[in-house]
Write a structure and sequence with these properties.
alpha/beta; Purple Acid Phosphatase, chain A, domain 2; 6-stranded mixed beta sheet; 12 strands; phosphatase activity; Pesterase_MJ0912; Metallophosphoesterase; Ap4A_hydrolase; Calcineurin-like_PHP_lpxH
């Protein structure tokens, strides 16, 4: 089965629409959403409705920290993120808020574990910033592949049976086979707010038969997404950073 895996959509309608179209053109048979459907962006109602519809059609989804903050305010968010969540909370309907609140922290599917942040303590919303962070996550599960988001920058880590770690930044559109002799942590880039210097939206395709993961980038109308943020009175920094991919 060919999976299309999305993380950190952040209510960016233009980016998520472009990624969904690209994934379907690549033959995606199932959708996986790794959390943070909302936050930062200007189209939370559309984003939640879209993910709800995908889940109704068989997609998998887990909760992210911004999704969680809609019902449980967080003290760990910066001022711009907090302002966006407060605005988002007022835009979502009760069924939309309930959908986000009821998403699981993790989902195990075959030999894959899906989580927003990392596997050792999913509810602490830790970032995988480096190899020790990745090792902690890999050691917390027996899954062959853990897939996460949260940090908005693509990366791939693996651990050998002797606990030797490797790490690298995957090249766009170059498949990487996740060999069975190692265990893997695939960190996805962000659909709606990339932070690796490339403003193009990011997602990944995973082939469950060949065990190959391919990181994908999709150009989209960044200006339109930024204009929507400004037009809704959200902090302008949230619009400006889209243009820089940071």
């Amino acid at each position: 089965m060919r999976l299309a895996i999305f993380a950190d959509i952040h209510a960016n309608r233009q980016a998520f629409s472009a990624c969904l179209n690209a994934a379907r053109a690549r033959g995606a048979e199932r959708i996986v959403c790794l959390g943070d459907v909302v936050g930062y962006g200007a189209d939370p109602e559309w984003a939640v409705d879209t993910v709800m519809g995908l889940v109704d059609d068989g997609a998998l989804a887990v909760i992210g920290n911004h999704d969680h903050a809609v019902s449980t305010p967080s003290e760990n968010m910066n001022a711009a993120a907090t302002a966006a969540i407060e605005w988002t909370r007022g835009r979502l309907s009760a069924p939309q808020r309930r959908f986000l609140a009821e998403l699981p922290l993790t989902h195990r599917d075959d030999d894959r574990l899906y989580v927003h942040s990392e596997a050792s303590h999913p509810a602490r919303w830790r970032y995988v910033r480096d190899t020790p962070d990745a090792a902690r996550s890999i050691e917390a599960t027996d899954a062959h592949v853990t897939l996460c988001g949260h940090i908005h920058r693509p990366a791939l880590y693996s651990m050998s049976p002797a606990a030797k770690m490797t790490s690298f930044i995957p090249t766009t559109d170059v498949p990487v086979q996740l060999l069975g002799g190692r265990r893997w942590l695939a960190v996805l880039g962000s659909v709606g707010q990339p932070r690796d210097g490339d403003p193009a939206a990011s997602f990944a395709m995973f082939d469950t038969t060949s065990r190959e993961i391919t990181y994908c980038r999709v150009p989209y109308d960044v200006e339109a997404a930024a204009d929507r943020i400004r037009a809704n009175g959200l902090p302008h920094w949230l619009a400006d950073r889209l243009l820089m991919g940071k």
